[in-house]
Amino acid sequence: MKRITIAIDGFSSTGKSTVAKMLAKELDYIYVDTGAMYRAVTLFAMRHLYIKEGHFDKEALLRNLFKVSVKFKMNPSTGIADVYLNSENVEREIRTLEVSNFVSQIAAISEVRHLLVEKQKEMGKEKGIVMDGRDIGTVVFPEAELKVFMTATADERARRRYEELIAKGDNVTYEAVLENVVKRDALDTSREDSPLVKADDAILLDNTHTNIEDQFHILLQLSKDRI
Ligand code: C5P
């Protein structure tokens, strides 16, 4: 059977990664969460105090970017690859609201994008991959056989993300999550380098009223049509 490249882009908290993981599992493809890579670089910047009390020292981050290694390693208990920052599993640390509040600033830096996009292209060389992010169908794999662009209302996305964070025990308010979702949308769509935009040939999926199972079946059918 032909192995293809599946690019899933869209706004934050649209459930891209949940459905992408299900799809990769079903097709026996590699799954790559590129947002986790930008989050790992953000965590690096926060830990080294390049980001402190709202101030961001971009030059210091750029001088030290060569020290950043972001890799994925399979977690046998979940069957999904966890993200590693310089050999440390940071899967949990990168999902906090603090990291979410800075990640779009870090992701707007061309040098950071260049570093991560090269890795992403390398991971997809052999095809048989489901990759989710913001620029996968436009920049990383413009030749992908299947491109999907996911969206939903900001309220619905914030509600889903809020429930996820609360379930993990994080102390957040719905208003703070909504503010973050709206702010990230604005930064991601307006940045100069690789802004979040639907590729002309991407299929638009508004999942405000569609549950995960239905989304999965839609994407599975779209994939099978191309295999
Ligand atoms: O997907 P997730 O919400 O974890 O992504 C976090 C942030 O990383 C996004 O808001 C965006 O700023 C950045 N990102 C990006 N390009 C990607 C994936 C994520 O700029 N391909």
UniProtKB/TrEMBL annotation:
<dbReference type="InterPro" id="IPR011994">
    <property type="entry name" value="Cytidylate_kinase_dom"/>
</dbReference>
<dbReference type="GO" id="GO:0005524">
    <property type="term" value="F:ATP binding"/>
</dbReference>
<feature type="domain" description="Cytidylate kinase">
    <location>
        <begin position="6"/>
        <end position="222"/>
    </location>
</feature>
<keyword id="KW-0547">Nucleotide-binding</keyword>
<dbReference type="GO" id="GO:0015949">
    <property type="term" value="P:nucleobase-containing small molecule interconversion"/>
</dbReference>
<dbReference type="GO" id="GO:0036430">
    <property type="term" value="F:CMP kinase activity"/>
</dbReference>
<feature type="binding site">
    <location>
        <begin position="10"/>
        <end position="18"/>
    </location>
    <ligand>
        <name>ATP</name>
    </ligand>
</feature>
<dbReference type="GO" id="GO:0006220">
    <property type="term" value="P:pyrimidine nucleotide metabolic process"/>
</dbReference>
<dbReference type="InterPro" id="IPR027417">
    <property type="entry name" value="P-loop_NTPase"/>
</dbReference>
<dbReference type="Pfam" id="PF02224">
    <property type="entry name" value="Cytidylate_kin"/>
</dbReference>
<dbReference type="InterPro" id="IPR003136">
    <property type="entry name" value="Cytidylate_kin"/>
</dbReference>
<keyword id="KW-0067">ATP-binding</keyword>
<dbReference type="GO" id="GO:0036431">
    <property type="term" value="F:dCMP kinase activity"/>
</dbReference>
<dbReference type="GO" id="GO:0005829">
    <property type="term" value="C:cytosol"/>
</dbReference>
<protein>
    <recommendedName>
        <fullName>Cytidylate kinase</fullName>
        <ecNumber>2.7.4.25</ecNumber>
    </recommendedName>
</protein>
<keyword id="KW-0963">Cytoplasm</keyword>
<comment type="similarity">
    <text>Belongs to the cytidylate kinase family. Type 1 subfamily.</text>
</comment>
<keyword id="KW-0808">Transferase</keyword>
<keyword id="KW-0418">Kinase</keyword>
